[in-house]
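User: Could you check the structure of this?
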Amino acid sequence: MAEYINIKGQNIEVVASDPANPTQGQIWYNSTSNTLKGLGFQSAAWASGNNMITARYGLAGTGTQTAGLAWGGTTTPNVSPTTSEEYDGTSWTNSGSISTAKTNIGSAGIQTAALGFGGYDSGGNTNVTELYNGSTWTTVNSLNTTRRSLSGCGIQTAALAFAGQTPANTGATEEYDGNSWTNSNNMITARYQLSGAGTQTAGLAFGGEVPPRTGATEEYNGTSWTTSPGTLNNVRSQAAGSINGTQTAALNFGGQTTPPGVINLTESYDGTSWAADANLATPIRSQGGAGTSTLALSFGGYSPAGGGDRSATEEYTGGAPATVTITAS
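Assistant: Sure, the predicted C-alpha cells are below.
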C-alpha cells in the first residue's frame, strides 16, 4: 500500500487545532482531539427549519436564508392573508400588512427593503406596487402592465418584472428605478408561473407555463433577453427559485410537472446548464423562495402528499469543502 508521504511528498502534520485554511487533499492529526482529519467535501442538502405562522400557498418571497420575507398568498378555502412574515434563520414573526389581500405576486429586494408588484386580488389582476421598509408596506407607482403569476428579481431601487398573465400570457418586461416602471423588451417566450433570479441588468428566468410547461431558460442583459442553451431537466411551473442568486448561479426547487405531478426536485444552474441537486424533504408547489445558490430558503406552498396548505420551512446548504474525521471504516 502506498504511504501518504510518497503520494503527497510530505508527512502527516501533527497540530493542536485544525488548520484555518486547509487545501484539497490535506490530511493532519489533531493532537487535542486525538483524531485524524482531512479536507473532504460536504454534499448539498435541505434541512428543516421552523414553520411559518400562517400556512399558505401562492405567496411571494425574497431575502436571504437568515433574513427572509414572505407575504400574500392564499389559504384553503380561498382566504388570502395580508400579513407578512420575517424569518431570522430560526423562526418566523408577523410583520406589517400589505394594502390588499392578493396572491401570485412578483417580488424583489431584501427583508428590510422589499418590493411586491402585480398579482391577483378580489377584483382580479392588479398592477399595484408596494414597498416594504422592514416594518410597513407603502403603495407606490403601479406596473404598466396589469398581471398575475409573474416573476421578478433585483433590489428595491433597481428591480425587474417579467412575464405573467393579463389574462393572456405575456412576456412583458419592466424595470423599476425606485420611483416608476419603464417598459423594456419582451421575453422571447411569453409565460406565467415561472421563477427568476439575478439583477436588473443580469436577470434570469426559467420554467413556467406557456402552455404546456416549459424548461426554457432566458437571460436578460439590461436591454434584451436571449435564450440560454441550458433548459431544466424537469420541466416545471409553480416552482420557487433562489431569487437573490445570480444569472450564473441559481436554484430552482419544487413545482408542478406532468408527470408525476408535484415534485421535490432541485436543480442548480451554472450559467450554461442545469444539474440535479439535493431533493426537498416534501414535494411542494406554489411556495415562496429566497436566498442564493448556496444558501436558499423554501417556505409555505401546497403539497397533496404533505397535507395541503403548508407552513413548513426548509433550508438549503450547497456542497462545499469541509473538514472530515478519518476513521478505519
